Amino acid sequence: MMGVEPPVSGTDDRKSLSITVQARKAGGLVTMSAVAEPMTSPKMAAGITYDAIVIGAGMSGLYQLIRLRELGFKTRVFEAGTGVGGTWYWNRYPGCRFDSESYSYGFSFDKDLLQEWSWTEHFAPQPETEKYLNLVADKYDLRRDIQFQARVASAHWQETTRSWTVTLEDGSQHHSRFLITAIGALSAPTMPTFPGIKDFKGQSFHTGLWPKEKVDFAGKRVAVIGTGASGVQTIQEVAKTAAQLVVFQRTPNWCAPLHNGKISAAEMAEIRSRYDEIFKRCEETFSCFLHTPHPQNTFDVSAAEREAFLEKLYSERGFGIWVGNFQDMLTNRAANEEISRFIAKKIRQRVKDPKVAEMLIPKNHGFGTRRVPLETFYYECYNQPNVTLVDSKATPIERITPTGIKTSDAEYEFDIIVYATGFDALRGAFDRIDFRGTDGVTLKEIWQDGATSLVGMLQSRFPNMFMLLGPHTALGNIPRSIEFNVEWVSDLLAYAQQKGITRVEAQQEAMDRWMEHVMDLAKGLLSMEVDSWMTGVNLNVSGKQKRIVARYTGSAPGYRAWANDIAAKDYAGISMA
Ligand code: NAP
Fold this sequence. Notes:
This protein has 577 residues and is of the alpha/beta class. The chain has 19 helices and 22 strands. Strands 3, 4, 5, 6, 7, 8, 19 and 20 form an eight-stranded mixed beta sheet that branches. A hairpin with a 3-residue loop joins strand 16 and strand 17 (411-413). Helix 2 runs parallel beside helix 17 and helix 17 (478-499) runs parallel beside helix 19 (556-568). It is globular, with a radius of gyration of 24 Å. The protein starts with 16 loop residues before the first strand and ends with a strand. NADP nicotinamide-adenine-dinucleotide phosphate binds next to helix 7.
């Protein structure tokens, strides 16, 4: 293993320790020194075994554990899987990778690790990211505080002891002063509701629950249902070896080329020398990617200039075509039509059969108003004789049969069915745990008309609970948001620790102000006119058929400014006792 260092501090070391807290003050980060006191003794008497319980050992859970150890917190992480990684543990489907540039995706907090680790591709595949996160777990010796195969069933607030009782599916109970959810924003996979799913005699998999064992598609008859980012990545990989691949597409998405490539040793050395600059740029951009929007509007430039700019974006790596495009692309309808026209032209050029090309061009939403899947020869797959596209809106799937799929006009036989049908996004992972706050109120009740929060991280009536990727946190290039949120929560806990505070709760008024801001930001966005997980729609989940403002749509710097302002004002809007 590469240059592994001991952990900064261990939970076994219960002595007071001097720590450095990144206290956020207006205008930026200020470093202050604090003395962390062990928080256990009075609590132990009250039966509280942990200072903090973290649910989930993905990127946010791992980093949170590191920071809690620095605070001297006795921490337990419960993780449903058998290994660390979260998204990168569960999503092992063929071709799975992120669409963020690798070097903008890794943790930025450990400068040594940045120098030790080499990314091999501009957009790393899942096995590499999983390996990277295992290296982080090794380096900081994190596994000793993580209990694997431990799925949390419920978390109930106990007012008398100011603590959380967390019950696992195996019935065991654990008690903790603070509760931190690190359960992801896209982590609750959803299956379609077709009859007969269980009757299928072949193999079937959901992309978000992919097995560790290799699935061999060679010579097989394969169905893929769904053409979101997971489906697109799966299809382009399966098409390489399957005897027959039938893609069931209900709604086409606008896809654009990823332009992945290997990173040479020399290139990696050059990237290493620029890490400070790379992360600074991520901190400044709207959604923490390396791309920034063009400062001009679509029609501010001549048609020839516009076409040349779009061609340039289409030929470049990554999300530039989506988040580095003309600044009015996602708010001005005519501008959006212009870029959609450009992408449609590309699809027609790349797909030989004009009928298939038309099926692949979205007609009910414009480019970028849903999440743009980045692809590698995705459209060219449909030129292969072994690949067929079925329009599942025109001829809906009626049922899964023991041997395949029956649609309204045909019956297909398959060896393997892949469900790339997505997630109960944003709050789905919360709905699967029985969270109860003050007076036994359930989070589901409180969120029945849509989730609420204070900066996505706190919810009134749920004291001492922090949500790392809760609703209304900035998403985008997610690790950047994870690092910020973990540090913000850790700073708050350090503050509480210093002041002997044992109860922290968001005030309703502060939440109302934040939610009003979230609602305002969504006004005028073309994406709000389209069904997708980003607007809270999942047709496979009851109660999620209608569009809502389901997420924070503002900029990451704007999000951070709001959260930093709360911290700078001694946690204004948060009651502490
Ligand atoms: P998704 O975008 O929600 O796509 C689900 C797909 O399944 C859609 O095409 C949907 O059709 C279809 N579907 C669902 N139920 C169906 C049914 N009953 N019948 C027919 N079709 C059905 O989910 P995802 O592809 O897993 O992606 C979710 C998000 O995860 C992405 O947007 C992205 O943020 C993240 N992700 C990222 C990457 C990456 O970084 N490259 C890769 C994978 C996922 P409709 O559109 O008609 O509903």
